[in-house]
């Protein structure tokens, strides 16, 4: 420490002093073009001017689509619309992409779908919301189909459930009870939400098939994908992470689900909408108790951790990207349609849990020694694997 | 209380968090022990007539592990030679007290005990290390040093297996933590029940599928002696976030722990992902994925007055080592 050249203070600085916050000076320049004055700071350090921000964001969208080379010209794509910044930004990306005159224009045929699913609002509020959504989609001049979740539950997917305009969509008064009855067999909120999500997924795929679409776009952003990944791990769906959180969900043979906004965060999309003078449709939400279900808890956890550790969401996404589906999967789950492994030769958690339950409920025969009782238990224990459902869906369908 | 699920006639005294079944005391003991026996036999953890070192800290997990292994060894005739191995990290007020508990275990369970200390192995106690580096990142030092200390102890004792008391909650927590940190290498290994550390002495986790709550209940009802204070340096670890998350998840649905382990076991890494390869440390010869193993890096940092050397980017470490290795007549570009 006292010799010349030994002043290696690089690492000590971090522990001794508070990290210096970069001051936004009036002379700072955009990171990209280094000419204009920046108007937005992303990720706490990257400054962009208006033009560079807009062109960068649009480029990011197109690059993700182009990288995977899945969509061919004239393919029909079902664009699932949801209220909020993500949905609005997605529509704008697509509309401007299609209207581009250059060779970089997007070349597919979008069809917008909106599934009304806000049974916590009153009937009048829902009808108004529907009209505003219709207005928004019309602003972007897209072909649209509107329907309601309770309709899909009651009547299934067919051409009469999908309407072209809000007036003729007759909302169910008792939507909430229809949905509650649908998930009534599930015992807790986590399972109900999980089951409902699987059902929504199925409806989406069936609608895409009905409308002859090869692809579906969903407006999930990075924090949604990150909390979905952790939720999947917590529910035992670890083997399906590549499908549920990757760019492409290819479990169905004919329809692929794509997540073009998975690398964007809310700030980027919010700013994008603001600079394009777009106001997404909003509605009253219920403040949920985050400890009500695993899905809620994970969302809260990711958002909270992101505050102090800004690399959280990106790290989770990157980890998810590197996880693959196993190679020796044969069966497809009857409920979630994902591939899953049959009985494995090695001991795994599922078998252990089954054994625990078996051991806890075996009739106690006090005339035998405990060693004899064990042998009896083990002989009677069949690793009762169900062949038709994956690990998690088995818990839902019990 | 409702009657015991096994219909043995007695009243239940607890509800198992793992399955929700209610059991009386004796049936709980039997179920708990049978499950560990099932894990050991089904996963083929031990070969008969082997020597096994049990990593003992005096805490509830290692105490219960030692107790149950001894019990099952006699009951089902595993023919194992069991011995206790303990590490003295030199944390005043924590480790010196828990070591007394381990000595009690040695006497109660009639097993030989070997104690390895950081002071003897590395020349530093944890108290001295924390005085040098501060209150952050101490778990890194302790964990790396302890792993090596256990390996060296196992080699000295000439055992065939090293059994640790990692329970289901630990493994679930580790899976979550490794996802949050993006540590693919550890993620692919952490849920394995047998891990080979490369030098021939595999580590096994017989309590892998046992819930922490059930271990506490077992120790309580069996009236086992254990030391239950948290390490004084623990509160600032990153692992704390994963632990709090896991506790919250468990409150919503206790089967989450087994679900996470199931997910961890079924994770497969993409072939295209970059995974580290195993080789030997150039300084001490221990297995490592880098040229110089982490323990040597940390130790060098401590001895040279650069305690942050092992923390943070390993690229800076490489640069530092390279600069040190260059002599004046070296032809490389480092000046």
From TrEMBL, chain A:
Pfam families: CTU2 (PF10288)
Keyword Transferase in record: no
Keywords: Cytoplasm, tRNA processing
Entry's Gene Ontology molecular function annotations: nucleotidyltransferase activity; sulfurtransferase activity; tRNA binding
GO biological process: protein urmylation; tRNA wobble position uridine thiolation
Coiled-coil parts of chain: none
Transmembrane annotation, as ranges: none
Matching SUPFAM superfamilies: Adenine nucleotide alpha hydrolases-like (SSF52402)
One cellular-component annotation, GO: cytosol
InterPro entries for this protein: CTU2 (IPR019407), Rossmann-like_a/b/a_fold (IPR014729)
Known pathway: tRNA modification; 5-methoxycarbonylmethyl-2-thiouridine-tRNA biosynthesis
Main function: Plays a central role in 2-thiolation of mcm(5)S(2)U at tRNA wobble positions of tRNA(Lys), tRNA(Glu) and tRNA(Gln). May act by forming a heterodimer with NCS6/CTU1 that ligates sulfur from thiocarboxylated URM1 onto the uridine of tRNAs at wobble position.
Family classification: Belongs to the CTU2/NCS2 family.
UniProt protein name: Cytoplasmic tRNA 2-thiolation protein 2
Organism listed in the record: Zophobas morio
């Amino acid at each position: 420490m006292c010799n010349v050249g030994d002043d290696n203070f690089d690492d000590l600085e971090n522990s001794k002093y508070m990290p210096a916050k970069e001051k936004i000076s009036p002379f700072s320049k955009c990171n990209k073009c280094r000419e204009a004055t920046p108007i937005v700071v992303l990720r706490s350090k990257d400054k962009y001017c208006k033009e560079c921000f807009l062109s960068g964001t649009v480029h990011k969208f197109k690059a993700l689509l182009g990288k995977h080379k899945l969509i061919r010209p004239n393919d029909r794509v079902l664009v699932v619309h949801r209220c909020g910044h993500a949905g609005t930004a997605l529509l704008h990306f697509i509309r401007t992409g299609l209207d581009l005159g250059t060779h970089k224009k997007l070349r597919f045929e979008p069809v917008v779908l909106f599934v009304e699913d806000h049974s916590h609002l009153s009937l009048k509020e829902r009808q108004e919301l529907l009209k505003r959504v219709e207005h928004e989609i019309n602003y972007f001049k897209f072909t649209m189909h509107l329907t309601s979740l309770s309709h899909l539950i009651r009547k299934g997917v067919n051409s009469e459930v999908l309407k072209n305009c809000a007036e003729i969509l007759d909302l169910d008064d008792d939507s909430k009870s229809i949905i509650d009855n649908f998930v009534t067999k599930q015992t807790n909120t986590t399972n109900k939400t999980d089951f409902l999500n699987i059902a929504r997924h199925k409806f989406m795929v069936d609608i895409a098939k009905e409308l002859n679409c090869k692809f579906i776009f969903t407006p999930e952003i990075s924090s949604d994908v990150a909390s979905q990944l952790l939720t999947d791990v917590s529910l035992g769906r670890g083997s399906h992470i590549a499908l549920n959180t990757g760019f492409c969900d290819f479990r169905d043979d004919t329809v692929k689900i794509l997540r073009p906004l998975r690398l964007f965060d809310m700030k980027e999309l919010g700013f994008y909408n603001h600079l394009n003078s777009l106001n997404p449709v909003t509605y009253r939400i219920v403040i949920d108790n985050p400890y009500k279900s695993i899905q809620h808890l994970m969302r809260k956890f990711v958002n909270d951790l992101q505050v102090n550790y800004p690399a959280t969401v990106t790290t989770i996404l990157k980890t998810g990207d590197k996880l693959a589906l196993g190679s020796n999967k044969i069966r497809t789950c009857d409920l979630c349609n994902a591939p899953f492994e049959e009985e494995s030769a090695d001991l795994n958690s599922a078998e252990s849990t089954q054994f625990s339950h078996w051991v806890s409920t075996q009739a106690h025969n006090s005339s035998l020694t405990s060693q004899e009782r064990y042998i009896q238990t083990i002989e009677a224990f069949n690793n009762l694997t169900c062949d038709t459902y994956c690990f998690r869906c088995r818990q839902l369908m019990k | 209380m409702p009657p015991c699920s096994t219909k043995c006639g007695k009243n239940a005294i607890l509800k198992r968090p793992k399955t929700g079944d209610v059991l009386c005391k004796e049936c709980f003991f039997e179920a708990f022990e049978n499950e560990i026996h099932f894990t050991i036999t089904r996963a083929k953890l031990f070969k008969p007539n082997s020597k096994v070192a049990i990593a003992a800290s005096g805490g509830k997990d290692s105490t219960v592990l030692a107790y149950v292994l001894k019990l099952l060894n006699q009951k089902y005739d595993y023919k194992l030679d069991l011995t206790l191995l303990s590490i003295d990290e030199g944390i005043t007020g924590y480790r010196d007290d828990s070591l007394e508990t381990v000595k009690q275990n040695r006497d109660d369970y009639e097993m030989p005990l070997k104690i390895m200390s950081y002071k003897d192995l590395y020349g530093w106690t944890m108290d001295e290390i924390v005085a040098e580096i501060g209150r952050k990142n101490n778990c890194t030092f302790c964990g790396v040093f302890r792993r090596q200390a256990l390996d060296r102890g196992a080699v000295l004792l000439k055992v065939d297996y090293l059994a640790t008391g990692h329970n289901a909650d630990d493994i679930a927590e580790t899976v979550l933590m490794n996802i949050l940190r993006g540590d693919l290498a550890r993620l692919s290994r952490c849920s394995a029940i047998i891990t080979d550390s490369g030098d021939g002495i595999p580590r096994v986790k017989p309590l892998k599928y046992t819930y922490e709550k059930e271990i506490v209940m077992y120790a309580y009802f069996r009236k086992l002696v254990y030391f239950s204070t948290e390490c004084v340096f623990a509160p600032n670890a990153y692992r704390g976030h994963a632990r709090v998350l896991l506790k919250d998840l468990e409150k919503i649905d206790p089967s989450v722990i087994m679900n996470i382990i199931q997910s961890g076991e079924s994770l497969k890494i993409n072939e295209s992902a970059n995974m580290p390869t195993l080789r030997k440390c150039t300084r001490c010869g221990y297995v490592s994925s880098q040229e110089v193993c982490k323990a040597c890096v940390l130790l060098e940092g401590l001895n040279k007055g650069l305690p942050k050397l092992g923390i943070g980017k390993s690229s800076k470490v490489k640069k530092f080592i390279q600069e040190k290795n260059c002599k004046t007549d070296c032809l490389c570009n480092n000046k």
